[in-house]
Amino acid sequence: MIKILLIIPYREVKELFKKRIQEVQDSDIQIDTTHIFGTPEDLIRECKYDIVIARGITYRALREALPDRHLVEIGMTGFDVANAIATCRRQFHPKRIAILAHDPSLNNIQQIEELCGIPIETYDVIDEHDIASKIQKARANGVEAFIGGLTLCQQCAELELNCVHIKSGEESIKQAVTQAISAAKTLNLERAKTKLMQAVLNSAHDVMISIDKEGVVTAVNNQVHQHFRIPHAKELVGCRITEFYSEDEDWRRTIATGAESETLRNFHDMLHLVNCKPIMVDHQSAGVLITIQNAEKIHETESKIRKELSAKGLMAKYYFSNIIGISDSMRNRIATAYKYSQVDSNVLLIGETGTGKELFAHSIHNASRRSQQPFVAVNCAALPENLLESELFGYVEGAFSGALKGGKMGLFELAHKGSIFLDEIGEMPISLQAKLLRVLQEKEIRRLGDDRVLPIDVRVISATNINMREKIANGQFRSDLYYRLNLLNIKIAPLRERREDIPEMVSCFVRKFARDYGKSDPSLTSEAADRLSAYSWPGNARELRNLCERLVVLNESGVIDHAEIEQLELFSEQEPAAQGGEAAVQRNEEEELLHQLLRDKIKKEDLAKMLGISRTTLWRRMNKRN
To answer: Crossing angle, helix 540-554 and helix 502-516, to 10 degrees?
Structure first.
């Protein structure tokens, strides 16, 4: 609430002021009145008002003593002065008149003197003590009557001198009150803005300091006192920032260049990030907003965000360091994948099942500039067509029977600013391919049942283990979509083409599972290692990983030998090398799959898991065999 004090200059106008105050209907403005004259010492000492309305030397004294308050003057117009002169001539018929007032009241006195036809002297007075000396001076100059304020009239009455009081007209009074009300509303609005800004500043956990171009503090939040160990009673607004913050090169550089800067600083043996952002007014730097953040809290916040993303399954888990391989083939592909990660172009990963396409997809995302954003993976072959569309693009409430209330966000929306991994892209239904193509071209999606489009920024990484060109030739995959997905590609070699990686992979997998199961690392005989290296591994790295887990679980001697591997009955009687090429290898695998399925009556799901391949791949091979 804004408080206004109205100092009534003389009792005759009290009712006029009261009437004007009653016209003010604003619950945020309180107006009190008093009647004093001269220099009010008590008011100067304990002024609790935001705005003061006064006249004459009272106004002048308050203006000098209270520079932080808003003062409104009750003016005295030329008409008011002329009216007082006319009254003085009628009552006292003086030969010379003196007007004692402050400067603004003495305008146009020469013209009034000419109109009245009587000499008029003017004296500028400061306070009641100054009035007494000016009275003596005027009397010495032959002045017979005085004109001025209430203080002058009181002193003249004591000296039995002729005096006329200059009274402010009704219009001057109305104008003063109106000006005070207008100032109160403006002050109220500014105070509300200041409180809002202060509330915003104090709600931040970081230290925030606003300074002007000279380094004078214009605003701070409560955290500043705590961080710099300054008593809360000390007022920081108006003081120079160098009084408590010595790193002045940070903000001086921002003022000089107009550019935002970030610097690591050590406060109280703790690392902090100092951000200096220019405050621009009319395209000119008007100051700097300094933000100081605890580096440990930044790390904690980042960790919390990553944990939440991980809990939602929206975080890539693997890095290039997780990919095992010493062969030139694998090293070259890792180097290529890293180069791809530095740009935002779409990537197509090609390779047999179990070769590590998903590891490459995760690693590309984690090495990219999008690493702190979501990573969303979806298997295009694992969902039926109608469900896949709603999962990818989302839907609005009532889009179809069974739709969730409020609708659902699609995977592309979840991946905004990050990456989406479309595994087994070759199995995507042809009807959905056109919609995916539009998403890639226009970079926007439309939820099912919605009439609005949503812009997205998503990097697409896709993978396939089938011959895409054959799919295109058979009309099962759109060529234009294929070329959109295949801007950059990596063909990951199967394990049989990089056998030198097998020993290292076996060693790594065995160590991992030994730690997981609380066992000591078993050693591998050279015969066992040769036997594993000679196998064709139709399930590639996934099959090898599953085999190593079984070896660790079953091993009790601490040594894995040739006989222990043979007991797993994993390998066919005829080795791939004796069959003459990859065609023979493929026939061998198909025969083994069919034989094992029929002989042991194994479920397809269990057989796929045992061989380290997906159910889709197993289904495809068995269907082809039939």
So the answer is: 50
> For residue 464, which of 479, 485, 478, 443 has the smallest C-alpha distance?
485
Task: Tell me the HSE value of 218 on the side-chain side, using a 13 A CA sphere.
Answer: 14
Q: For the chain, which residues score pLDDT lower than 50?
A: 104, 572-584
Q: How many residues does this entry show for the chain?
A: 626
How many CB atoms are closer than 10 A to CB 22? 9
What are the residues whose beta carbons fall under 8 Å from the beta carbon of 346, sequence distance 6 or more?
440, 459, 460, 461, 462, 484, 485, 486, 487, 488
pLDDT tens per residue across span 121-141:
888 888 778 889 999 999 999
Which DSSP category does 167 fall into?
Answer: P
pLDDT of residue 408: 84
Give the bridge partners for 294, in sequence order.
Answer: 272
The pLDDT, as a whole number, for residue 127 is 78
- H or E element at residue 307: helix 295-311
Q: How far apart are CA 82 and CA 88, in angstroms?
A: 10
pLDDT of residue 368: 94
- What is the 8-class DSSP label of residue 403? P
Write down the number of H helices and E strands in the chain.
25, 22
The one-letter code for the residue type at 279 is: I
When computed from its CA atoms, the radius of gyration of the chain, rounded to whole angstroms, is 45
Query: Which pLDDT score is estimated for 81?
Result: 83
pLDDT for 313: 65
pLDDT given for residue 366 in this prediction: 93
Phi, psi of 82 (to 5 degrees): -65, -35
Q: Tokens 């036997």 belong to which residue?
A: 531
pLDDT for 577 equals 39
Tokens of 385: 């067509």
Phi/psi at 99 (5° precision): -110, 120
- Give long-range contacts, CB 8 A cutoff, 24+ apart: 571-580: 571/531, 571/535, 575/534, 575/535, 576/496, 576/534, 576/535, 576/536, 577/534
E-strand ranges in 237-386 read 261-267, 270-281, 284-294, 347-350, 375-379
- C-alpha–C-alpha distance, residues 268 and 562, integer Å: 63
Q: Which pLDDT value is given to residue 38?
A: 59
Question: Is residue 393 within 8 Å of residue 447, measured between CB atoms?
Answer: yes
- CA neighbor of 301 nearest in space, from 291, 292, 293, 313: 293
In angstroms, the Cα distances linking 248 to 273, 281, 318, 560 are 15, 22, 43, 67
> Would you tell me how many other CB atoms lie within 10 Å of the CB of residue 84?
20
| C-alpha–C-alpha distance, residues 425 and 472, integer Å | 13
Question: What is the DSSP code string of 514-560?
Answer: HHHTT-PPPEE-HHHHHHHHHS--TTHHHHHHHHHHHHHHH--SSEE
Contact 615, 605 (CB under 8 A): yes
Whole-number Å distance between alpha carbons of 258 and 278 = 6
One-letter amino acid of 82? A
Calculate the CA dihedral of residues 564, 569, 573, 574 and round it to 10 degrees.
-90
Contacts of 255 (CB under 8 A, 6+ apart): 213, 278, 285, 287, 288
What distance in Å separates the CA atoms of residue 174 and residue 552, rounded to the nearest whole number?
98
